[in-house]
Amino acid sequence: MPRFMGFVRMEEGQGNPPQALFDAMDTYIGEQAQQGHFLDGGGLFGLEDAVNFVVRKGEVTRVDGPYAEAREAVGGWALLQYDSLEEAIAGQQEFADLHAKHWPECSMVASLRQIPDEGPTPSDA
Predict the structure, then answer these.
(1) 86 vs 28: CA distance, rounded Å
(2) pLDDT in tens, 27-65
(3) ∠ CA 13-14-20 to the nearest 5 degrees?
């Protein structure tokens, strides 16, 4: 059964979602979990708590928040499982629709990416 990773990217500084969205998400996630689609997930702290390691030309640099130049950040994630890509897309559409209905002033992107069944193979480079 294919697995997927859902991400929510949104502009920083939009504030907290309204209680109506939290309530709708609790119901939606409960239903999805009961059907075996929602495996795990949740929200993330803001960029002020982020720690990034940047790799450039063989050098690693640690960069801690806050990030004045940041406009968009991953705000949440979900590990999902569906019988097909079409079902996963429909589920992600429902998720996005809940945000549009209960938090219309929010600007966000709900991304869906399939997780390969097999691990990556090493490159020959």
Answers:
(1) 18
(2) 999 999 999 999 999 988 877 778 889 899 999 999 876
(3) 145
